[in-house]
Amino acid sequence: MTRIGIMQGRLVPPLGGRFQCFPRDGWAGEFAFAAAAGVDTIEWIYDEFGADVNPIANDDGIDAMQQLSDRHGVRVVSLCADVFMDRPLVRASQPQLEERIGVLIWLIDRARQVGIGRIVLPFVDISSIETDPEFEQVVDTILGVVPRAQEADVELHLETSLGPDRFAALLARLPPGVVKVNYDIGNSASLGYDPLEELAAYGDRVGSVHVKDRVRGGSTVPLGSGDADLPAVFDRLRELQYAGDYVLQVARGEPGDEVRWAQRNRELVQQYLAAPGASGP
After folding, report:
1. What CA–CA distance (Å, rounded) separates 239 from 279?
2. Distance CA 206, CA 96 (A)
3. What class, spelled out in words, does domain 4-274 have in CATH?
């Protein structure tokens, strides 16, 4: 069943100018805000900025998360592992890589305890895959943790800046049941990729979608005002019978207006989902 979720931190004002981070002081309140905005899920964030206070790190914190989830009817079904933007799984020394793989294995185990079904692994920007040796290293790293992910019933969703054919080649080396694509609509637009070419190359492996808009070579902008061909993307995903989650990772609105802004963007996504060729309001 298709659900519309929201990236954690988007329902509270940004912290210290950070566009996206774990909301150290506001995470508990976001469950009520998410319910008010009418979204189904929250994509949790684990990053360096909030690691010392992230409730996913201890059993009492997980209990609190689950109680809030039950109270407000908003599920935590995915985790965005932004810690690997701070400590990339590429361009690392062997000791660094081993430590970071240990963090990933730990996150898989914590995800299982929460009931999280997928972890999004970012290979973009500072964490992008740039060379053939890095490509091979990523294959080896993912294959090394696949058994743990399978045991935990946690999927690994890769978000990369690779072009369509190169990303398809990476996926061909990795098991489809557990390794899937996190398709970021806005990032693809910023990179200048053709979404129809991308989805032709690996549309059958898409397991989750981040919804945002960006200008080519530039920053995130409100939905419908950038270079993302949103109608084409939603239409093609419909043709592929994609029934997974759409997670709002949209440009921020005015501080203090987060719930209304989330409602507006949720309604816009619902319109895109409702009918072929929908252009939104």
Report:
1. 17
2. 30
3. alpha beta
φ and ψ at 55, to 5 degrees?
-65, -15
Query: What is the value of pTM for the model shown?
Result: 0.96
Q: Are 117 and 153 in contact (CB under 8 A)?
A: yes
pLDDT in tens, 24-49: 999 999 999 999 999 999 999 999 99
Q: Average pLDDT, stretch 89-112?
A: 98
Cβ atoms of 23 and 8 within 8 Å: the answer is: yes
Instruction: Please say whether the beta carbons of 4 and 266 come within 8 A.
Output: yes
The three-state (H, E, C) secondary structure of the chain, written as one string: CCCEEEECCCCCCCCCCCCCCCCCCCCCCHHHHHHHHCCCEEEEECCCCCCCCCHHHCHHHHHHHHHHHHHHCCEEEEEECCHHHHCCCCCCCHHHHHHHHHHHHHHHHHHHHHCCCEEEEEECHHHCCCCHHHHHHHHHHHHHHHHHHHHHCCEEEEEECCCHHHHHHHHHCCCCCCEEEEEEHHHHHHHCCCHHHHHHHHHHHEEEEEECEECCCCCEECCCCCCCCHHHHHHHHHHCCCCCEEEECCCCCCCCCHHHHHHHHHHHHHHHHHCCCCCCC
> Which residues, at least 6 apart from 264, have a Cβ–Cβ distance to it below 8 Å?
none
